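> Could you send the TetR family transcriptional regulator prediction when you get a chance?

Sure thing. Input:
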Amino acid sequence: MSSSTSRELSRRERERQMRRRAMLDAAQSVFAEKGYARATLDEIAERAEFGKGTIYNYFEGGKEDILYAIFDKTYQEITKIISETFATDDGERTLRDRYHDLVVRGFEFYSNREDILIILQKEAYRMGFSDDTDRARWFHEWHERILSAACPAIEGAIETGEIRDLPATAVAHMLIKNLDNLLVHRSLARRSHETLDECTSAVSLHDDPNAAAEFLTSMLFDGLVTHDAPPLPAPPPERST
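Output:
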């Protein structure tokens, strides 16, 4: 194959990728605005400025294939962020440091991707709990893959005594889901055009990723109980029979 032919194929592939990306971007905005069930392929095609037939050339399964492509791309990006942030090749950084960085990167990732966050909340949970076992399995496997990206760093923190000896996957779930919930709260406040309530506005979580990271990291790693809190009451004595 000549070099000119190779360049032509490369150019065509780049154009194809750009078209595919434009279709996904259009679908994201339509799904976020109307929900998957109410969105139509005609609306997606119109917003992407392609014919519906062209959409089918890229996504044979139509609307559902597009939705899965959005999920797949987003989950890959999230897994990459977690893998990079929780990388264990830097022994100087604690798990607490890594989690702080993850919160900052999570806020930065979704700062211009609120459509994605809305779709994940609306559609991923619905499809993940579907009676369709293939759908449910697909989402479960991605969920496990995302959690697994954090587990080596958590296991290392357990070995060094930084955190308690707890199941690494359960710890990963707790860390990541608390970040998810904070991001959702932020998105809901933005969409309602209201000031964040006192639970978050006091620490500037709306527009300050570092403040959000300090808040969430402190809450999860230091806990809610103060060091001088009174001890828990002793359990009542067992009654003799």
